[in-house]
Request: fold
Amino acid sequence: MRAPLAYTQKRTPLLVLRPTTGWVSLKLRELWDYRELVYFLTWREVKVRYKQTALGAAWAIIQPLFTMLVFSLFFGRLGKMPSDGIPYPIFTLAGLVPWMFFANGLAQSSTSLVVNSNLLTKVYFPRLAIPVSAVLSGCVDFGISLVLLVGMMACYRLAPTGHIVFVPVFLLLAFVTALGVGFWLSALNVEYRDVRYTIPFLTQFWMFATPIAYPSSLLHEPWKSIYGLNPMVGVVEGFRWAVVGSQPAPTGVLAASSLAALIILVTGSYYFRRMEKGFADIV
Reply:
């Protein structure tokens, strides 16, 4: 006896999408399954950033270089700011390299959902992939800026320390910080579009609250550990220690900064997932 047609054909899996309620899981495994999408979104961010620009990737050198010159003139030469025994231009540039990665990642990720509104409303994929790719795209600029820093150190006859192998650790900490804040601001920016106007002010204030133009050695305990609750303090001081060897390893500040960055990332991730169900309707 011949089996009915309905049983002979292979059944197609049915995927039902329902809106989430309350606090939900992060579904990091799903994000890993879409890792190729993250890669292509990251590469697209890199290409779009320098599309139709006259100088292209040279902006990754121009921005930290000219900022270093301004800081060296006003804070180093005129303000006589101490620099822990390091030539002030190198001291400043060593802080600007990780800072530029963080600042650009924060700016790109905060507006990434609104910029990619057409993609959000047409196809399903883990929305976390958009801010993640926006921050990851800054790794190219970071590599170019790091080469600039090593070249400047060669001009001053300074050699990188053996601790340079720890640079990826501080890059990861900067990535976690930028991504955590980016999760918060990108989700808020979908509902409140005036959030984008606060980002330049927040970035500028945060830069002067980070020891880029001045050393954190000006502070003493317990204020130095409290100051380390700014995650970028651990990033900048740790990066200087790894590349230039400015001071002993900032273990206390680094521990406080790592804890603060982890809290920002976890809370930002859960807030992003909670608000995710309304992105396509509002954006």
Observations:
- Residues 167-191 form the longest helix (25 residues).
- The mean pLDDT is 87.
- The chain has 15 helices and no strands.
- The two ends are 56 Å apart (CA to CA).
